[in-house]
Design brief:
The complex is a heterodimer of chains A (about 100) and B (about 170). Chain A is built from five helices and no strands. Chain A is mainly alpha-helical. Chain B is built from eight helices and no strands. In chain B, helix 5 crosses helix 8 and helix 7 packs across helix 8. The chains are: A mainly alpha (about 100), B mainly alpha (about 170).
Chain lengths: ~100, ~170
């Protein structure tokens, strides 16, 4: 992905490979100013990305589904607990400032 | 929340993978999505199908989180904010709400309609091969493979558009 000023078909192929291999940030960083303009002006590129995403999902989407969701659920629970603590803290802060105002 | 996560995890993470292609990123984003749903579940009150659920979750919860992920990345990219958003958190396309099973069936059918060389290139790509390896298999150059992939993907898009508009 290091070639300067790639043509639109090369940019699509590199985007597709980066998406498939989980390295999208590297692709984004590799874009030159000229390539970014080329992408922006190419309706074909945008239409093609739609298909690339679908192919990525169909071909590799099943690989990310972990058989045991339990660990992930505990992460979600922790995130929820953390948020509810923040909500409680901000409510307490709010009522304290109300009392001070009175 | 646990039963909801258990019943929807597979659907949501597969969908996110289309945009991120990275297991760790997918789980990080999905964790925030579920916490957002817990905090504000109003959009999910009157859902009556899997397709409607996915559409609602993508539009109201996932897109916001996807934009956040890539806002960080955009600091080092020449893409405009608008292009970045279209690349990583786009509007839903015609076939984006197909279930995983239906999507696989449709793509399989579409691949069957391609010329042998086009189909081979796509199948090798979906098998995880690099463009260099595909070029070796097809006995051609990397540049020619990229051009072949580009034309074939556009051809597939026309076929998918027809399929989704008919359906």
């Amino acid at each position: 992905m290091s070639n300067a000023d790639r043509e639109i078909q090369e940019l699509l192929a590199d985007y597709a490979a980066a998406l498939r291999d989980g390295g999208l940030p590297t692709f984004l960083k590799s874009l030159t100013r000229e390539e970014a303009k080329r992408i922006s002006a190419s309706p074909d590129f945008w239409e093609a990305t739609e298909v690339v995403r679908l192919m990525n999902g169909a071909g590799f989407g099943d690989n990310v589904v972990t058989p045991d969701v339990g660990l992930f659920i505990s992460r979600v629970d922790a995130a929820i607990v953390s948020r509810s603590k923040k909500v409680k803290a901000s409510t307490r802060e709010h009522s304290r400032s109300q009392v001070n105002l009175q | 929340m646990e039963p909801f996560v258990r019943s929807t995890f597979g659907i949501f993470i597969r969908h996110l993978h289309r945009y991120l292609g990275n297991e760790v990123e997918c789980e990080d984003v999905l964790e925030d999505v579920y916490a957002d749903i817990w905090e504000n579940p109003d959009h999910l009150r009157a859902i009556d199908s899997e397709r409607q659920l996915l559409r609602t979750v993508y539009l109201y919860y996932m897109r916001k989180r996807l934009r956040e992920v890539y806002r960080r990345m955009n600091r080092s990219s020449y893409l405009s904010a608008n292009d970045m958003q279209n690349l990583v958190a786009p509007e839903l396309g015609l076939c984006d709400l197909l279930s995983q099973t239906e999507l696989k069936q449709v793509l399989h059918r579409m691949l069957g309609k391609l010329k042998a060389r086009e189909r081979k290139a796509m199948e090798l790509w979906m098998a995880g091969m690099s463009n260099r390896a595909i070029a070796t298999q097809l006995g051609t150059t990397v540049g020619a493979v990229k051009m072949l992939e580009f034309r074939t993907v556009l051809k597939l898009r026309r076929m998918l558009k027809e399929y989704c508009e008919e359906g």
